[in-house]
Each structure stands twice: as C-alpha cells, then as structure tokens.
Write a structure and sequence with these properties.
Radius of gyration: 25 Å
Helix content: 25-40%
CATH class of the largest domain: Alpha Beta
Strand content: 5-15%
Largest sheet: 6 strands, parallel
Order of helices and strands: EEHEHEHEHEHHEHHEEHHHHEHHEEHH
CATH superfamily of the largest domain: Crotonobetainyl-coa:carnitine coa-transferase, domain 1
Strand order of the largest sheet: 4-3-2-5-6-7
Amino acid sequence: MIMTATINESSQPENVNNATGNDVPQGALQGIKVLDLSRVLAGPSCTQVLADLGAEVIKVERPKIGDETRHWAPPAFSDETSAYYATINRNKKSLTVDITTPAGQKIIKQLAADSDIVVENFKVGGLKKYGLDYDSLKQDNPRLIYASLTGFGQTGPDAKLPGYDYIIQGLSGLMSITGPSDGEPHKVGVAVVDLFAGLQLTIGIQAALLARQHTGLGQHVDVALLDSALSMLANVGMNHLASGTVPPRLGNQHPNIVPYQVFAGAGKQHFILACGNDQQFGRLCHLLDVDWHQDSRFATNPSRVANRQVLCDMLVEKFAEQSRVHWLDVLSQAGIPCGPINNISEALAMPQAQAREMVVDFAAQGSPVKALGSPIKLSASPVTYRTPPPRLSEHTDSTLADLGYDSDMIAKLKADGIV
C-alpha cells in the first residue's frame, strides 16, 4: 500500500502550504513570474521545479489541443488527466494562445514584459519569426531571463536539428555503456536526458536570477540535451579522456570498483552488492569465510578490477548457497553496502519514501491526481503543492483579465480561435 501526503485544510504535511494559514513560510521563489512556452517533458520539468519553489508559472498551450502529453494515455486519472502530463505540470496555470497570430503574439509579449523568466523549447530560431525570441522580448524587458532548452543548443553545426531524449541517449554514448555486456545497447528506463537537462536549465535560471541582482539585467540561458547527456557520462567519460580507450558496456558492473554489481542468491533472487573500498571487501571475505583479501589478485581495488571475472565467478558460486534474504541480512549487519532491487510499487511503499512525502495526493482539492513529490526539502521556505495539473485553458480568462482584457474582448479572442 502506498501512503500519500494528502493536501487539505485540516491535515497538512509539514512541507505543504496551507492557504488559510498566516504563519506558513513563503516559497523561495515567491514573487517570481515565469512564462512557460515549453511542452512535453524537459522544459516543463524545469518550470515545475520553479513552481514548486513558489514561482507563479503560466503555461502556454495550443488552443483545443494543449501540450501533447495531455493525450499520452493510458494511463490517465479519472478526470482524464494523463499520468504523463501530471508528472511535470502541477502548480501551474493553463493559458491557451495561438502564437502564430498577431493577436496571440501580442498576448505573449504583454506577459513577457511583466515576467522574470521565459522558458521555451522550440527549435532554434522557431520563435524569432513571431517576434518572441530573446533579442525581441528583452527590448521591452531588459531584466528578462530567457531560458532555451533545445536538442543541440543555439550554436554549432547541428543547432537546428530537433532533439529527442532517445536519440540523444544514442548519440551521446550513454546507450553504449548501458545494458548487458553481451547484448544490445539499452536506453535508461525513463527519459533521463530530458530530466537531467531540465535540472541543468533550472540551475542556469537560478544562477541568472542571482546575477541579475548584481547587474540589473537578464540574460539568455542556453541548455542542450546533447551537452547535458555528455556531461552525464561523468567518470566513464573521464575514463576515456584519461586512457584513450573506449569504455565497454558492463551491464550491472561498475567500471572502476569490484565487486560492485548485481548478484543472485539461491532461487536466482537478485540483490546489489556495493563494496566501495578494501576494508569493506575484507569484511565480505571474513563473512564468506574465505581469504581472498589476502590474495594478491584481489587485495586492492585495482587488482580486483584487473581480475574482475575470476573474482566475480567465485562470488556467484558463494552467493548461490543462501537466499537473498539471508545475504541482505548478514551483509547489512557486517556494514557492507547492499540492497534489494524493488519494483516501482515496492519503492513508493517504502517507509522512508512515505516519511519523505514522496507521493502527493490532490484529492482534497477535488482532483484524483496523485503525483511524485519533490526531492527538495528546504527548512525555511519549503516546496509547496498548491494546485493539481490544470485543465486545458483553465486560467485563460483570469490571465487575460489581469492583462486588461474585458469580457467582450476575451469572447472575441475565443470566437476567432486565438485563445
């Protein structure tokens, strides 16, 4: 059973804002206005972080259609909100605008003139023809931070190509090191490049906000999926730069540490063993009643890496003698890092995940949506879960009214298909 943090007025988790209270800390980004022109996953994941931290985020969607991910179902909640859309669109307002029309462009320019941040993930140059690029918008708002997330960045020979997480995982080399050593390359189970790039964009935006305090001026934040994926190569990419060799695909093994991989107990029940140093390996040998730590082939981590297959074959035989439950128990007692491999249901039901309020329930606000919680825990200005993912065009009327449009003007915009 998955326990959730339920949002209501009578029972609030500590990190959930109670709108009726007067002593609730303000969000860290309260007062910051974000115009979100992005769609699908990478850009919206960035703006959801900003929204969780208290920023006002207006998500611009296409009239009648909305963000593509609204239609990426099943699964969906009972109000027909797709699970995919709900993943990265809470705490936002939905405004529908046809930005290809002069009237729609006027609305976007009015909003940008009063915004701190614009986030977009159009192809390079895609918004320039509408007068919605950075150089155009900063004329009316020099303090504007304009954040672009594209497949390949604003410069370089591939800048104008479209970007897709799956393709970038292949191009960047990430897939070449993911999957079984004797099988085909694998992608990561979620769109990790999109999400990582979204976080990089968030960091860039926050850095630009701090820089604006000193200069009074905004700037263009340029983040690319490919750049983000290349930086994700981390120590494996550095292994190549240091050695000149092409890193192999090692499946569940670690390129620099042994033994640090998946093993199976009796009955082929899998678990993770992560010996990070020689002391832990020595304790493992003592627990297994072997003296391998005294063997020159295995005494140090470099020697274990050099003799990886010999050692791991012996460990496979040893671990097959007892159940996974047994090994996890004795390894933990010995202070040797280890753990089970949970499925998603088991992971979300963990007492630790529940204690950290990593599932949020919007039932008290009339929404059937449950969402994964934010991992950011701030003591003085906590993340808040104020509103569920919005219905398409839910805030169009109120947003336009704030811009000075009266009811007749709004009705005409709707009749003309502008909003």
